[in-house]
């Protein structure tokens, strides 16, 4: 799980072009959207593609993403339970 | 400066018909032009509905009499086809007898050919003639050349409000006295680029679109082109021209909220409608019908609905989105809907908003769902696009 | 209706660096097939949250727009009008490549939403919270002049008092590779200037040029833009009537033109048009700029920058002279800018001292 979370942080930084941010700057429980990292709806769509491309998880409803993308912790939990690759 | 710009010609090609008359018949019959995509292979074929024109590029090229080889892209073919009709209606035998311009618009430009042949460009010269057909402006050049226009030719590209802005620029050029006559409109072909782009935004519906419906799931894309001939009222009178309608109002504003999403209260849309009413010297009470942008995305319809309620308050006129007929034709939409607005004035009809059944919870707004026969004096047409670009046009009965 | 409008502020990101007083005196003649803009540091100008998605065109545009507004001491223009030939092609390229590489799968929306031609004008509106008129023109070599014409319409009709006008085109690797394959851009290994050009094609580049234009003259005014004319296509001999018509409309005898800014780019066919106009204006001093700006659709905005500089400073930096022998002129009042590309998209702009 720890490895998955580290991997996720690196992927998030990469796909969202988060310059000046390192994996160490992102806390497992920190909110990704709004107050925390400050991501927005376009980032959510990027994360949906990341889930599909890397973990084989298809999310067809962007609204469902809101719960899954609360934090790196919630993402990692969802991925470990649902990943197909 | 009220009533100074006359519409003396119009032409259209969309998925519901190749002529103004065919488009009118489809509206009267409530017949939509949506289907599965057939002109090119795509992974999305079974997932989306599109307003596709069932004519190949070769057929279109033959119909408008081009000799081969040429580098007209589909966007350009559709544009030339519709613009030629507009000139015929306006009885423009000599396009250069007055100071004539062309203000076209497109967002796709030559992308349909770049996405097809681009992978060969660096290894083979076979399709190199399409390299220069890629930029948006190339389509306008070819359309102007095809029509024989030598004059002011330019292109607007403000995403889905492009054609409305091209029409507006044309009208302002006439009012300023710089042109006597101008052909205005827009053209966009379906392409893998755009269908995949909208798909990546998750705003394409897998069903027929339902603008302003509580259960709307997104938009259907379409392709098409439409052009109007605008002339100064004086020039039209001197030539004894038949005036189809007057373009009396226009307004352009920016939502300045988000690159793609519309603001909660539809500020940009509100400002565009307000400016259009001001240029037309009309009040909101004078508008008899609104041809809404109504893409059927959750965001647009709520935002536009709020903006309309702010403008019209308790006196909401009849309104409908005609995108369920044609699909959202992007840069061409403002011109196609301008033709529909003029038809509404001429025929005394309000086109139905197809597929609507459940009102949105947030707003007390119900579009016109059945064709209505009613005399109309002023019609407002909305077009909004990515980048917060919002434009509104007002057409008035001739 | 007809009245002049004033250039009250300039901003630019070019191959010669950002807009500054010394831009011409410090300029280097370009000799590469493709030269990137000399980009400034954007930190502090654009927020980190916003900048992470921006292509170079958007960044250059925002920077140049801000510079122009600051110079004009203008916090909120009434309208934003831009011109671009190829739009945001870096993002278009990115989306297209990913479409090809992944066969329509795993496509992400960021590059798509930024691929629309109006992205730069939209992002500037967003940054400024400018809810006014906002339009982008995309028509080859007159993309910028179309925006300039619209600016004149807005200001002359009273629809606006101040307009932010700009032209932006960015280098996108794939698009430029295609233009190179098609023979529009010189081969990668050539080393020729506009003057020494012998091989086919032209030296290309990128840049953003913005102008704060107002109805009223201010302390920072550079010059006045009097008129602009556009023509879709002309043969070389037809340039005569285009020029004469423009001069007549503006009651401007050809002898009153002090300088003519020409778009010489080293392409033999293109340069015939410029030579023709130069020949018709024997008393005007010919200046050129594409040896410094490089070719791209909105590069003629660099020409307007030259005109504004000369009219304000009343001096011509030597590097801008087309002829070897510099004339001994000391006052500069009327300047004409002529531009076209491959016989299409002709424009004439009349700029005058204020």
Low-confidence stretches of chain C: none
> What share of the residues of chain C does DSSP label as strand, in percent?
15-25%
Largest sheet of chain B: 10 strands, mixed
CATH superfamily of the largest domain in chain C: Thiolase/Chalcone synthase
The sequence of SSEs of chain B as H and E is EHEHHEHHEHEHEEHEHEHEHHEEEE
Strands in their spatial order, largest beta sheet of chain B: 4-3-5-7-1-8-14-13-9-10
**Mean pLDDT over the residues of chain C:** 96
Summed up, the helix count of chain C is 11
Keywords (chain A): Phosphopantetheine, Phosphoprotein
Domain Carrier (chain A): 1-83
Protein name (chain A): Acyl carrier protein
InterPro entries (chain A): ACP-like_sf, PP-bd_ACP, Ppantetheine_attach_site
What would you note in describing this structure?
- The complex is a heterotrimer of chains A (85), B (398) and C (354).
- With 85 residues, chain A is mainly α.
- Chain A has four helices and no strands.
- Chain A has one domain: ACP-like (Non-ribosomal Peptide Synthetase Peptidyl Carrier Protein, Chain A), CATH 1.10.1200.
- The two termini of chain A are 15 Å apart.
- Chain B has 398 residues and is of the alpha/beta class.
- In chain B, strand 13 and strand 14 form a beta hairpin.
- With 354 residues, chain C is α/β, with parallel strands linked by helices.
- Chain C is globular.
- At the B-C interface, helix 4, helix 5, strand 4, helix 6 and helix 7 of B face helix 3, helix 4, helix 5, strand 4 and helix 6 of C.
- Chain A: Keywords: Phosphopantetheine, Phosphoprotein.
- Chain A: Pfam families: PP-binding.
- Chain A: This is Acyl carrier protein.
- Chain A: It comes from Sphingobacterium phlebotomi.
What's the structural blueprint in terms of helices and strands?
The complex is a heterotrimer of chains A (85), B (398) and C (354).
Chain A: H1 2-15, H2 41-55, H3 62-68, H4 72-82
Chain B: E1 5-13, H1 20-29, E2 50-51, H2 57-63, H3 74-89, E3 100-105, H4 111-121, H5 136-147, E4 152-156, H6 162-175, E5 181-188, H7 192-200, E6 221-222, E7 224-232, H8 233-238, E8 245-254, H9 267-280, E9 289-291, H10 298-312, E10 318-320, H11 323-326, H12 333-347, E11 349-350, E12 372-373, E13 378-384, E14 389-397
Parallel strand pairs in B: 2-6, 3-4, 3-5, 9-10, 9-13
Antiparallel strand pairs in B: 1-7, 1-8, 5-7, 8-14, 11-12, 13-14
Chain C: E1 5-14, E2 17-18, H1 48-51, H2 56-71, E3 79-83, H3 89-101, H4 109-113, H5 119-128, E4 133-137, H6 143-156, E5 162-169, H7 173-181, E6 207-214, E7 223-233, H8 239-249, E8 259-262, H9 268-280, E9 285-288, H10 290-293, H11 300-313, E10 334-341, E11 344-352
Parallel strand pairs in C: 3-4, 3-5, 8-9, 8-10
Antiparallel strand pairs in C: 1-2, 1-6, 1-7, 5-6, 7-11, 10-11
Helix pairs in contact in C: 2-5
């Amino acid at each position: 799980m720890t490895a998955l979370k580290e991997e996720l942080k690196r992927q998030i930084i990469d796909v969202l072009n988060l310059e000046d941010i390192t994996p160490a700057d992102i806390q497992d429980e920190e909110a990704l959207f709004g107050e925390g990292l400050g991501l927005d709806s376009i980032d959510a769509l990027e994360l949906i593609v990341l889930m599909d491309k890397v973990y084989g998880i298809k999310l067809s409803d962007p609204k469902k993403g809101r719960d899954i993308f609360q934090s790196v912790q919630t993402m990692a939990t969802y991925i470990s339970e649902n990943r197909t690759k | 400066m009220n009533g100074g710009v006359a519409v003396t010609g119009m032409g259209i090609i969309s998925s519901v018909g190749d002529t103004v008359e065919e488009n009118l018949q489809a509206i009267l019959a409530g017949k939509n032009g949506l289907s599965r995509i057939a002109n090119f292979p795509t992974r999305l074929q079974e997932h989306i509905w599109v307003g596709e024109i069932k004519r190949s590029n070769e057929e279109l090229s033959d119909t408008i009499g081009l000799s081969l080889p040429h580098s007209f892209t589909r966007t350009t073919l559709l544009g030339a086809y519709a613009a030629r009709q507009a000139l015929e209606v306006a009885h423009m035998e000599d396009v250069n007898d007055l100071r004539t311009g062309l203000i076209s618009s497109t967002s796709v430009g030559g992308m349909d050919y770049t996405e097809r042949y681009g992978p060969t460009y660096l290894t083979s010269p076979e399709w190199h003639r399409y390299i220069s057909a890629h930029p948006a402006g190339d389509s306008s050049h070819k359309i102007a050349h095809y029509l024989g226009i030598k004059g002011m030719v330019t292109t607007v590209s403000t995403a889905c409000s492009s054609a409305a802005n091209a029409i507006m620029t044309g009208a302002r050029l006439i009012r300023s006295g710089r042109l006597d006559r101008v052909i205005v409109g827009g053209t966009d072909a379906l392409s893998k680029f755009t269908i995949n782009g909208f798909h990546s935004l998750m705003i394409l519906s897998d069903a027929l679109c339902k603008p302003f419906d509580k259960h709307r799931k997104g938009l259907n894309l379409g392709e098409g082109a439409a052009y109007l001939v605008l002339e100064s009222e004086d020039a039209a009178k001197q030539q004894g021209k038949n005036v189809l309608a007057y373009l009396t109002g226009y307004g352009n504003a920016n939502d300045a909220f988000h690159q793609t999403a519309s603001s909660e209260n539809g500020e940009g849309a509100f400002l565009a409608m307000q400016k259009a009413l001001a240029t037309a010297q009309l009040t909101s009470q004078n508008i008899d019908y609104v041809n809404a942008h109504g893409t059927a995305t959750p965001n647009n319809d709520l935002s536009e609905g709020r903006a309309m309620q702010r403008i019209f308050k308790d006196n909401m006129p009849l309104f409908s989105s005609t995108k369920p007929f044609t699909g959202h034709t992007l840069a061409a939409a403002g011109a196609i809907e301008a033709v529909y607005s003029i038809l509404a004035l001429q025929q005394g009809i309000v086109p139905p908003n197809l597929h609507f059944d459940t009102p949105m919870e947030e707003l007390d707004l119900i579009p016109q769902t059945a064709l209505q026969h009613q005399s109309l004096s002023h019609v407002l047409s909305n077009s909004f696009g990515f980048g917060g670009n919002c434009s509104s046009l007002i057409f008035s009965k001739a | 209706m007809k009245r002049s409008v004033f250039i009250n502020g300039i901003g630019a990101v070019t191959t010669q660096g950002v807009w500054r007083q010394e831009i011409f005196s410090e300029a280097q003649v370009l000799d590469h097939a493709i030269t990137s803009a000399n980009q400034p540091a954007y930190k502090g100008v654009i927020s980190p949250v916003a900048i992470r998605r921006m292509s170079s065109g958007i960044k250059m545009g925002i920077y140049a727009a801000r510079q122009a507004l600051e110079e004009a001491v203008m916090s909120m223009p009434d309208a934003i009008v831009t011109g671009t030939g190829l739009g945001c092609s870096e993002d278009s390229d990115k989306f297209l490549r990913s479409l090809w590489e992944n066969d329509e799968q795993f496509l992400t929306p960021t590059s798509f939403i930024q691929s629309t031609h109006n992205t730069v004008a939209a992002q500037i509106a967003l940054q400024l919270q400018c809810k006014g008129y906002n339009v982008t023109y995309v028509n080859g070599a007159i993309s910028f002049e179309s925006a300039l014409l619209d600016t004149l319409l807005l200001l002359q009709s009273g629809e606006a008092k101040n307009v932010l006008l700009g032209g932006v085109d960015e280098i996108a690797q794939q698009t430029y590779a295609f233009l190179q394959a098609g023979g529009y851009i010189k081969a990668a290994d050539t080393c020729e200037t506009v003057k020494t050009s012998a091989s086919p094609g032209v030296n290309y580049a990128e840049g953003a040029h913005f102008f704060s234009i107002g109805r009223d003259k201010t302390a920072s005014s550079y010059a006045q833009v009097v008129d602009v004319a556009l023509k879709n296509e002309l043969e070389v001999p037809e340039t005569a009537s285009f020029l004469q018509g423009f001069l007549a409309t503006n009651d401007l005898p050809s002898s009153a033109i002090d300088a003519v800014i020409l778009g010489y780019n080293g392409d033999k066919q293109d340069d015939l048009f410029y030579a023709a106009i130069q020949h018709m204006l024997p008393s005007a001093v010919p200046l050129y700029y594409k040896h410094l700006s490089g070719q791209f659709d909105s590069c003629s905005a660099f020409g307007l920058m030259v005109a504004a500089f000369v009219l304000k400073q009343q001096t011509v930096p030597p590097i801008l002279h087309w002829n070897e022998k510099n004339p001994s002129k000391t006052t500069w009042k009327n300047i004409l800018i002529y531009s076209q590309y491959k016989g299409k998209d002709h424009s004439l702009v009349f700029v005058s001292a204020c």
